[in-house]
Write a structure and sequence with these properties.
With 140 residues, the chain is of the alpha+beta class. It contains 5 helices and 7 strands, in the order E-H-H-H-E-E-E-H-E-H-E-E. The chain has a 7-stranded mixed beta sheet. The radius of gyration is 14 Å and the shape is globular.
Length: 140
């Protein structure tokens, strides 16, 4: 498994699989426009996880002033619990530290218990509840 920067070209190539993979998530539904939207530093901070040139996961991250914000992280169901999600989270935290950010933030649907446990394992703590989503933060 290797991580590569997410590019517009990769999104266009993998868009159908990205949308299909994201369908397993509770909460916000993303269209192609969401994936292609411009966000601060998105193209430098977002990654795909590939295995034999097959998309097995991805994360979309942007710079929000003092923090890097994880907008979306998805691992293909057939590749979950094999380390791709952890590698993407390690990359997220490493990039934030390298950029001298104060923290990393993310939102997670309140019923996504397995993701919440992983985020807690990585040192994230709940800071706010908004509707069906929880905001988590890891101070660096």
């Amino acid at each position: 498994m290797n991580l590569e920067h997410l590019t517009k070209e990769k999104i266009l190539f993998y868009i159908d699989k990205m949308i299909k993979m994201s369908a397993q998530l509770e909460g916000d539904y993303w269209t192609a426009e969401h994936y292609l939207s411009e966000l601060p530093e998105k193209w430098n901070l977002s990654y795909v996880a590939l295995e034999n040139n097959e998309l097995i996961g991805f994360m979309i991250v942007s710079d929000k002033g003092g923090a890097h914000h994880l907008h979306r992280i998805v691992i293909d169901q057939g590749h979950q619990k094999k380390g791709a999600g952890k590698e993407l989270l390690f990359k997220l935290i490493a990039n934030a530290k390298k950029s001298k950010k104060k923290d990393v933030t993310l939102k997670v649907h309140h019923t996504n218990f397995s993701a919440i446990e992983i985020y807690k394992h990585f040192g994230f703590t709940e800071v706010e509840r908004s509707g069906e989503n929880y905001l988590y933060k890891r101070i660096l």
